[in-house]
Structure formats: C-alpha cells, structure tokens
Amino acid sequence: MPTHWYNFLGDLPGPMPEVRDLGTPTAAEIAAKVRPRALIEQNGSDEQWIAIPEPVVEWLRQCGRPTPLHRAHRLERHLGTGARIYLKREDVLPTGSFKLNTAIAQAYYAAQEGRTTLITETGAGQWGMSVALAAKMSGLRAEIFMVKCSLEQKPYRRHYMELLGAEVRPSPSTHTAIGRRILQEAPSHPGSLGTAISDAIERALEHPSAAYLAGSGMPLVYLHQTLLGLEVAQQLKEIHGEDLGVEGRGDHLVACSGGGSNLCGLIGPHLRARAGGSDLRFLAAESTAAPRLTRGVYRYGRTDLGGFTPEVLGYSMGESFVPPPNHVGGLRNHHSSALVSLLRREGVLDAVAFDERTALEAGRLLLQTEGLLLAPEAAHAVAAALDVAAKADADNREPVIVVLASGSGFLDLQGYHEVLLDT
C-alpha cells in the first residue's frame, strides 16, 4: 500500500482557473470555520508527495487496502474481445465504496483538531456510509444530509448509517433555512447534491465544534484518492506484468464521473506519463440524467444552491437544473468540478453519457459473467469499457482497459429490479 499521496496538480495541462469568491462571508471564510486546517493546507499544497499519517495508513490497511485488481477473463470471453479488462475492486471495502479512502483521512484530521461532529452531504449514500463509519471509529458524532429521492430509493444505506449512530436527514431539509426555502418554492423537490451540500454547510456553520467534510469536487479529496491510481500502476506491473500506455495499443483508464473523486484518483497519478507522450487515454462515464461533461456549458457556477461555495469554471447544466430522480444518486449534480472540467476542456479527458437502463444492463452483464454486482454509478464505467473494447476490436487493437469498480451494488438491488425486471 502506498505510504504517500500523490499531488498531481503540477501535472495538469494548464493552470486551474481562478475562482470567484464574492459572497458575504466569502467561501474562503466559510471554509476556515468548517474545515480542519490540515485539509485546507492540503487543498492548496504544492508538495508533490504528501506523507499519509501512520494511523491513517494502519486504518486503511485494516479496511482492506490495497484492494484487488481483478482480470475479467469471463467477461472478455463473453465479448470475444482481444482487450484485457481489469477491475479495480473498491467495492470490497467495508462500506462497499472507494469513499472510505478520504473519509478516514478527513475524520483523522478533524479529530486531531478537536472537532466533535462530522457533518456532510451524500447522494446515493456511499459517502454518508463512509463518514458514519469513520466518525464512529474516531469517537465523533456524524450528521448526514442525504438527497431525498436517494434516501427513499436506498433505505438500507440510511439504516447502515443509523446503526453507526449517525443522524440522517433528507435534503432539502426542514432543519436549515436554505432547505426550507427550496421546499417552499418546490414542495416536491427530489433533492440533489447541490441542495445537500447547502444543507450540510449551513448546519456546520451553526456548530463551531463541527467539521464539514467534502466527499468530492476538491483537490484534497482527489489527493487522498490517488491511492487508486498508485495501486493500479504497481499491481499491473508487479502482478500482471502489464505496462500502461504502450504506443498504438489504446490503453484506457475508465471511471464514472460525478464529483470526480474516483475518476481523478485513478487518472491523477498517470497525468505526467500522458503529458510525456504515453499513449494512455482517460474516459469519464456520466449519466444522461446530468450530462455536464457531454452536454453542459463551460461557465462559472456553484456546486451548491445556498451560495456557500465559490463560483468555479466548469461544465454546467445551470443552477436551476433539477436532475430526474433516477437511481444514480452519485452522478446527479448540476455543475462539474473545475479540475475535471479543465481536463475535459484541454482534451486530456474524454467523456460519454449513458441512460440508466444501458448502464444497469452493463452491470447485469458483469454480474452474469464475473459474479460482481456493482453500484449503478460504477455500472456506467462498465458500459463505457464495453464500448472501448468493441471499438478496439474493430480497429484490431488489444488494449489494457482498467475500470474502476467504485462501489458495491448490493444495496441497489431495488433499483436494478425496477429498471431491468419490473416491467
């Protein structure tokens, strides 16, 4: 397991766009109140390698890092493809998701600073589950605002959080001013990550001993998730004897993209090789429910609806966009992160969008061939990998395709049933 996180900000194809921080108070002032100082420093660090605190390393090892890299032989035979398809198995972690990688780190820094409560938002619930577990193991309270339609669709994720002592509230929430305002304007609002972020930050501002934890969209989160790409590089070389980026082969790293944390964690450590001429391609798979990277407008906007975050330049559906209440809660936000958008804008990152049925069909195929059931979000990455393999076969190439299996689907069975079987 890596003992250092890799800070890939220096490997980006250009400078990060300036943020617009025009609120009163400013987003920077809000962050100083609700975010542990160590995390603020990591968010803007220029160090290339940042040591992981030994307690965090040990905790991650106990949770199962490094996670397996699985060669999907049966899927390959079913497809009749010459591609070599690997799955990075983040679904095997205790909460069934890669989100635990940064939840453990952020909870550690919050506890070190003397914070008593962790407050956050969650979409499909995987981030909320990870924060709930990290809080309990750190001796902290947890308060989690979960997107309302996801909470209704995935009640067992709520049950998991509550078993750990977390307080779980639907978003938009009647416990916050922004939530009450949204519900007054749209009583049947299904909720989104934008509403949940607003609820969580407002709540954290009301409690000086609380820390607000971000599950995605920020450099500090991408930093913690570089464990993904670092482990993949080592496992491919030492276990499977594979090198990535062989000229003309069309190797791909594929991940779903919501806030971009699993995507950036996978590709971030490989950006330098790509810039140095490696024939390595990065692919983001998103949902047609919120197709920011494929259909959005490159513009300034906020990721929340309450005005607590700064305006960042990214691909956006607009702040008035309300995503439909489908089963891919982790991909349902209106504005993409500045970093992911920069990679897309500069041509480093490709993107595709899939409707819910297509993605879940890919998830079903993986279950029927490899026996692995992934979350709906991760199934989008599987769908993208199937297309990559088909195109490679048509072009007589045999690439290495690494798919990030970012989450388990066992708590998403109702969604799979409703979309694929309940006809």
Question: What's a quick, concise take on this entry?
Answer:
The chain has 423 residues and is an alpha/beta fold.
Topology:
Blueprint: E1 4-6, H1 27-34, H2 37-43, E2 49-51, H3 54-63, E3 69-71, H4 73-79, E4 84-89, H5 100-112, E5 117-122, H6 126-138, E6 141-147, H7 148-153, H8 155-163, E7 167-171, H9 177-185, H10 193-205, E8 210-212, H11 219-224, H12 227-238, E9 251-256, H13 261-267, H14 271-275, E10 280-287, H15 292-295, E11 297-301, E12 312-316, H16 338-345, E13 349-354, H17 356-370, H18 376-394, E14 400-405, H19 413-421
Helix pairs in contact: 3-5, 4-17, 5-6, 6-8, 9-10, 12-13, 17-18
Describe the structure.
This protein is α/β, with parallel strands linked by helices. It folds into two domains: 4-52 and 99-219, Rossmann fold; 64-96 and 225-421, Rossmann fold (3-Layer(aba) Sandwich), CATH 3.40.50.1100. The protein has helices at residues 27-34, 37-43, 54-63, 73-79, 100-112, 126-138, 148-153, 155-163, 177-185, 193-205, 219-224, 227-238, 261-267, 271-275, 292-295, 338-345, 356-370, 376-394, 413-421; strands at residues 4-6, 49-51, 69-71, 84-89, 117-122, 141-147, 167-171, 210-212, 251-256, 280-287, 297-301, 312-316, 349-354, 400-405. Strands 3-4-14-9-10-13 form a six-stranded mixed β-sheet, with helices on both faces. It has a four-stranded parallel β-sheet with strand order 7-6-5-8, with helices on both faces. Strand 5, helix 6 and strand 6 form a beta-alpha-beta unit. Helix 3 packs antiparallel against helix 5 (100-112), helix 4 (73-79) crosses helix 17 and helix 6 (126-138) packs parallel to helix 8 (155-163). The longest helix is centred in the C-terminal third of the chain and has 19 residues, at 376-394. The radius of gyration is 20 Å and the shape is globular. The model has no long low-confidence stretch (mean pLDDT 95). Its cofactor is pyridoxal 5'-phosphate. Residues 62-404 form the Tryptophan synthase beta chain-like PALP domain.
